[in-house]
Amino acid sequence: MALSENEVLEGLAEIVVDETGIDAAEVTAEKSFTDDLDIDSLSMMTIVTLAEEKFDVRIPDEDVKNLITVGDAVTYITGAQD
Amino acid sequence: MTVVVTGLGTTSPLGGDVASTWEAALAGRSGVRTLDNDWAETYGVPVHFAGQLAVRPEEVLSRPETKRMDPSAQMAIVAAREAWADAGSPDVDPERLGSIVSSGIGGVWTLLSAWDTVKERGASRVLPLTVPMLMPNSPTAYVSLEFKARAGAHSPVSACASGAEAIGMGLEMIESGRADVVIAGGTEAAIHPLPISAFAAMQALSKRNDDPAGASRPYDVTRDGFVLGEGAGVVILESESHAKARGARIYARLLGRGMTADGHHIAAPEPTGAGQTRAMELALQDAGLTTADVVHVNAHATSTPVGDMIEARGIRTLLGSHADSVALSATKSMTGHLLGGAGALESVFTVKALETRTAPPTINVTQPDPELQVDLVRDVPRALPAEGQIAAINNSFGFGGHNVALVFASI
Predict the structure, then answer these.
(1) Contacts with A42 from chain B: Cβ below 8 Å
(2) pTM of the entire predicted model
(3) Which residues belong to any copy of the Ketosynthase family 3 (KS3) domain (chain B) (predicted)?
(4) pLDDT tens for residues B34-82?
(5) CA separation for the pair B309, B314 (Å, rounded)
(6) Residue A40 annotated to the active site
(7) Backbone φ, ψ for residue B370 (5° rounding)
């Protein structure tokens, strides 16, 4: 049962909030992980690893650099679901 | 140059801060309890009790903080924040502020749970922060990061002497002119089935499963090993001139340190205790004091059959008949043995003893070893001389033959 983009956004936001302490309301699709949310590369890799587990998808390292915004990650994860 | 102590912090089996820990120590309470887990049934871990923290770090830290730090670093941060606030959050140039917070073992929980992850879920599930969490310099690095300590961040590793060695190095760092203020101490979070099994395999731990609170009994004839504890202690060390210039409250002076090595055995202390005695002598020399100035000793005394008496004989050798009137306290009887955190928590106790002129008690000694020739403070606290300047020694020794003695004095 694939999740909708909204469900993925919600789940991803949970991971980001848990990992960084950022207020959940801040984690919106247009936000850049680095520029807006101030997430460093180690935290980004942690979020990716946790997202892979949570959504049961693979996000290869070479694709991570293309995930600039929260929305990019949501689109990628939604598309990667079987 | 004189170095003073202007702040204290701890999280320990007796309490979540200095006030509650000190109050429990004076009351002679034990922080040792039966472990609430299935390690005995699941793995056959032979020791079922330890001195666990009174207040878990996750109760006072944010979730992101607990997720990125091993418990050993979490405890160090809790103690460092208390000590820093207690010192009045000194206004100090970051390049003149040092961090020396040690751990004896490092991030053992992180290391072993990451290995479980590899085995159970595959290498790709290992989190990127695993290395910064498991490295033994993580606590001092996080303290340096939080307080912008840029004069240097160090973490001497010397087993159960680590916390005391960190404080001794803090003294050196200020005396050598590298820093005006140093956040110094030690931490350990090793109440985990593997370290317990490994210490038990060495026959180092008490197996008194039916009487956890009575298990740590330094100098008692029935002592049968140490009791594992966890927690952190941190002191804020500061040059006297820096402290006075900012009008800081001064608890005590840290006047000297003595550090020697046995060069004898990887885990057993050298039987004559010569290296331990020499550490105490060097610390007193460094402090410019004589044995007559010493009114209190916080002993390393872990409750092991061999180690306790080697130290006690060394203290007798050093102090001679003066040992009959030096209040000797073995606070591990209450806290258990915090390994890398021990020397730091016991420095907090030593400073509080000088500040309040009260030596904390040693509990669980029902039959003192007949060979004991020191003046053990038993069951209830004892008043130290109310007038004049008084000094105290804090001893810490570690596997590998590390001997550290620190000399503190009243103001």
Answers:
(1) 128-129, 132
(2) 0.97
(3) 1-410
(4) 999 999 999 999 999 999 999 999 999 999 999 999 999 999 999 999 9
(5) 8
(6) yes
(7) -60, -20
